[in-house]
Design brief:
single chain, 11 helices
């Protein structure tokens, strides 16, 4: 179990690191910034972690949704910088990166999710990444695709990931959304969230601080369910009511915005 002290220490460390990157590493103009892509990439996950920690420590709902937007917008800056030919390595721009997309979806900003989807590659670069490629493709279809896109993506996701570690619960939930089965969705979501209670101490240590209390995927899929007219009827400690009403909170500062 993560302690308040560990969360507080993690928050201090994340805040300090973000300040350094924004002040010293990511400089304007972006076209002249050395290692722009690497610096942006390092920031991406930090905003999601900070969102969770700030909510757990301070019940900061506004800050939670702002930081989800910061992650998504930082990744959007990375994608735009790459397409402009700035200093961004090709390996950082791939079709297997799900986190920023999930943050936009969890914040209820499907317009932003669609913009990220549009700029992300659509082809698999590394065959070893097939599972994460089909998973991310599934999320992209839910965020921005047609019903046919969703059905096709789900078949590929199911074929590639059934029986693979960590994927069966996700397949179960997403399958219920594909078919708009409200009863099955709520049952699958509950089972997925309860699986966090069954993690071994070693598995818990592999999670980011606070990730055993707030799951961004679950929040994102609740918003997908709302868009697909699939009502949420279950309650769980990992679904705080304050976070089930998404807020599009575009931050004015504290992240590397696109010019």
């Amino acid at each position: 179990m993560v302690t308040q002290e560990l969360l507080s220490d993690s928050l201090l460390s994340i805040n300090a690191t973000i300040r350094i990157f924004l002040k010293e590493n990511i400089t304007r103009p972006y076209s002249a910034c050395r290692n722009l892509g690497g610096s942006l990439w390092c920031l991406v996950d930090m905003y999601r972690s900070r969102a969770i920690i700030r909510f757990l420590l301070e019940a900061d709902v506004e800050g939670f949704f702002e930081d989800l937007h910061r992650e998504a917008l930082t990744y959007l800056t990375l994608l735009k910088a790459y397409h402009q030919g700035f200093n961004v390595d090709r390996e950082l721009v791939n079709a297997e990166t799900a986190g920023p997309l999930l943050c936009a979806m969890a914040a209820g900003n499907f317009k932003l999710a669609h913009e990220i989807h549009t700029l992300m590659p659509r082809q698999l670069d590394d065959p070893d990444g097939l599972e994460f490629f089909t998973y991310t493709s599934m999320l992209r279809a839910l965020a921005a695709g047609t019903e046919q896109d969703i059905a096709t993506a789900f078949q590929s996701f199911q074929d590639a990931c059934t029986g693979k570690f960590g994927f069966d619960g996700k397949i179960a939930i997403i399958g219920t959304l594909v078919h708009r089965d409200a009863a099955a969705f709520n049952q699958a979501l509950l089972e997925y969230l309860q699986s966090f209670e069954e993690l071994s101490p070693e598995e818990q240590e592999e999670l980011s601080p606070g990730a055993e209390s707030i799951d961004i995927l679950a929040l994102a899929l609740v918003n997908v369910a709302r868009r697909r007219d699939v009502p949420l009827t279950v309650a769980h400690r990992m679904l705080p009511p304050e976070l089930l009403e998404p807020r599009i909170r575009i931050p004015q500062e504290g992240y590397p915005a696109w010019p």
